[in-house]
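User: Teach me something about this protein's shape.
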Amino acid sequence: FEALSAKVDWDSATSTAVATKDGVTVKVTINSTEGVIEKNGAKEVKTLDTGAVIKDGRTFVPLRFVGEAFGNSVDYQKVGEIGLINIGK
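Assistant: First, the predicted structure itself:
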């Protein structure tokens, strides 16, 4: 979220990361396989490939969901043994 210049807040009561940018709010709850995107008064629930987790004090969320939630395209290219993901509008 931060790499896309979104403002990120943490709701400790619900273990939910809340990111906002350009009128879009994205919510992801730890260990849930659903993410919520709120835009222009509409709320959309998306199924995540895997649930969000906390590891070493950092929150990890599926990259495709994060990128697409803010209107970016996400492509995957395998180069050698490394996966490269390009995010751009």
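Now, about its shape. The radius of gyration is 13 Å. The first helix runs from residue 63 to 69. If you'd like, I can walk through any region in more detail.
User: That's plenty for now, thanks!
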